[in-house]
Amino acid sequence: MNLWLPQATTDAAEVDYLIIALVLVSCAILALVFGLILLYMIKYRAGSGVDRGAPPEKTWRLEIAWTVATLLIFFGLFVWGADLYVRLFQPPPDALHIYVVGKQWMWKVEHQGGQHEINSLHLPIGRPIQLVMTSEDVIHDFSVPAFRIKHDVLPGRYEALWFQVEKPGTYHLFCTQLCGTGHASMTGDIVAMPAPEYELWLAQNGAGEPMVAEGRILFMRYGCSGCHGGNGAGGSQSVGAVRAPALAGLYGSPVTLVDGTIVTADERYIRDCVLMPEKRRVAGYPPLMPSFTGQINEENLLRIIAYIKSLTPEMQP
Amino acid sequence: MSVTDLHTEKSYLTDGFTLRSWLLTTDHKRIALLYLGSITLFFFVGGLAAALIRYNLIVPEGMIGSAETYNKLFTMHGVVMVWFFLIPAIPVTLGNFLVPLMLGARDLAFPRLNLASWYLFVLAGIVALYSVVAGGVDTGWTFYTPLTSAYSKGHVVATVVAIFIAGFSSIATGLNFIITIHQLRAPGMTWYKMPVFLWSLYATSVILVLATPVLAMTLLLLAFERIFHIGVFDPAIGGDPLLFQHLFWFYSHPAVYVMILPGFGVISEIVPAFSSKTLFGYKFVVWASISIAVISFLVWGHHMFVAGTSLYSALVFSILSFMVAVPSAIKVFNWIGTMHNGFIRFDAPMLYAIGFIGLFTMGGLTGLFVAALAADVHLTQTYFVVAHFHYVMVGGMVSAFFAGLHFWWPKITGRLYPEMWGRAGAVIMFLGFNLTFFPQFLLGYLGMPRRYHSYPPEFQVLNVLSSAGATVLAVGYLLPLAYLTWSLLYGKRASANPWNATGLEWKTQSPPLTENFISTPVVTDPPYHYPRPEVAQHHD
Fold it and tell me: Are B309 and B301 in contact (CB under 8 A)?
């Protein structure tokens, strides 16, 4: 019986420290509760002649004391857990993006170079990785116990999960959200390797086009370039096209919507714009964008988004 | 009063022997027994499913060949245990029996509504069992969409209808208790003279009445989406899958307190009775129950820390979840304070109650692990969570139910159960429970996901330990079934107050008359008015 779980990421040890602290607090409280119960069971058993003292007077001082003590301990644990959670859930800007699609009952992975995997994920150690995840059907959950992280993978939107692996090795990947009959078989391997080995793996498995190149082809095929221009430069009246916003440099930048709110153009925003253009329409443009719901599958949509993310204003034709 | 007097004496049990006198009764005590029979049946149906689950997990590839069958088993276990045992158990049996007796009343405010609620419950149970026999449902008791609304091939709608009907039974019981406690208190029975058990049931009833309608609406929407493809939860037809989780947990988290609050009430009766001492901090215990009921409505989001809700919602729900644990901790300290300087007797109800305090404390403390955000990310959806809520619901609530059942058994049946067997049952249940569920904390930390029909081989040792513990636990549950049934026929006759306990229910005969009291009692003593230890001390 192995009661040790590898700490493969930078944050795994920190999560373990929090859990150890929780274990220690629990043990202290349990020792107090069980200790007092056992002591009183013996000392104050009905047959015992021990002096019971005077009947209890006011109890509120004790009540306030243990209420406040409990509150303080709980507040400390809350701050600890929350602080770590905030860090766990905010990906650094320079993370390597890898795209994950869950479906009943498999994990499909696509690397930026177009390498595909099913039920396995190869990744380099020593640099932050951000997964961009979605589901084709029901809710799944991407869980890697050795990394101490998990996150639900939902249909109809993108969820992000990031980590930085420090130790090379092969780790369990589990789906931890009940997703139907084959739920328990929706598992896989996370293979973490040093950067050079990862590059080698990418080279050996790079049969397909890179995601950006495939996305560019799809961008043309679905007619996006007709309005948004080649390389997403934006439509202009001069070439007789519909006026549509420029996409170069869009990713990660603030966008003002027709209702005046400002959002950051992340994967989820771009996805919504493609599938539900009326939902969060950008200010200053006519509502001409058609909805692509049901026309693009999840994997192709990820490729188009990868292409849009790659566009910079310097790439003007 | 001699034994023969008691034997020939009239009681609610001898007031009619026909089937009709039971099935059409409006006597709260008889309805409590009808409910007791029904929930016992469901407890063993759900327990059978649990036994098969533990059997399956003995080997990594699963002893039961089919993942589909396994998924149906844990769904049935969850649905039956949650809605047909844990939620109703204490309110509809002990509550039904004791609320009028403790208040000094003749019956509940609406006796016929009380009977109707039992028929609703039975109808719901029949529909639930139909859905099992017809082929079962494989979605888990949480019914997450869009799995349930669009993908599952099981009998989702039938199961949902069963829960929908059971919900109305809950609402009827809750309304009845609230109105009874407001209107039918005996002369002198002020709010602060009420036993904590009544306060707990009051808080429980408020939750039942306010939260259950939300569940009913949610399940209706789910059924509509499944049958008519109206897009509410499925993003493929314009819905939002997280909306279902918000609505479901808005009911189901308060429902956890529906399960445990009545248990707190039972323990608050038993610990003073067997310590011959007043309850420590009565008003704090009372208001702890009320604040639990209020805060319980504000913590549902802690089920969704990895579901894709916002960072801010996670922070708010995390701190509120820590807050709801404070009143529970206050209660534990008050029970221990009650034992201090007491004259403690170790009859079976007290042993079950002490077992409750220990197991509930462990359940509560492991709740802190999953309230702390970063720890929850690792532990949620694993066996850690399974162990945590079984400590609260089974270690806590079921222990409290057995404690209460033993405590009031002489009052309910007029018979004493065999004390040594009772104590043995309490000890076996405590040990079997820990053997079953403690290994699951370790499994969860190591990453074993819940609801897995098969698992990687490194988890086998702990799973075998857990399954072995489950056999001990099964003995712990079958034993009371045997000796309590035996005592119905052969147990010694019980006096009106075999435990020397306070409370109006002990001031009338055992078993009580149909009318409960010969004349309406008048309350003058404060609750838990146990004689001073010097007076209670016996010198043999």
Answer: yes
